[in-house]
Amino acid sequence: MSAKCPIIIGLTGGIGSGKSAAASRFASHGIVVVDTDLIAHDLTGCDGEAIPRIIEAFGPEMVTPERRLDRPRMRNLVFTEPAARKRLEHILHPMIRAESERQCARASSPYVILAVPLLIESGTYRERCSRVCVVDCPENVQIERVRTRNGLSEDEVRAIIATQISRAARLAAADDVIDNSGTLKALDAQVDVLHASYLALAG
Hints:
Elements: E1 8-12, H1 19-28, E2 32-35, H2 36-44, H3 51-58, H4 71-80, H5 82-106, E3 112-115, H6 123-128, E4 131-136, H7 139-150, H8 154-163, H9 167-172, E5 176-179, H10 184-202
Parallel strand pairs: 1-3, 1-4, 2-3, 4-5
């Protein structure tokens, strides 16, 4: 953690829980959000830093003609072959961690929101956080949101959820919980309360 911004708040939640909506509300208060999903997209985007290593590990067929990761093809592979998931994680995770550390160190807001989908599962991220904030909603709400947003089938969404830590375990690890089973207005109000609390924590 940097001297400029000693307070890092880990933000996490299952797929479709509303992490992005919560992060956007924190950002509206002028808080820097370091999003590991966005970092991963940059690394695997057009001529991203991870593309050469992905080609080396999986072959050129996993990259589009524009030299981006072929996400649907990779998604199908990692859900059917656990070893492939491990190979991809071995490439991406160290790069994502290093870039997230750089972004946190550069932040100038009173605290930083570090958004990590697998924060609870990853001890390295958890160790960097002063508090863990979990965005939570029932599984049926998650499924409907992801189906609407991504056009996936219910079975596909359930398969993704099955790869993540359980809702109960995530809640057990939380210092703070945002209930996002209702409206966006209700989520915003909870973020506003937590923002005031984190400002006080930052001193």
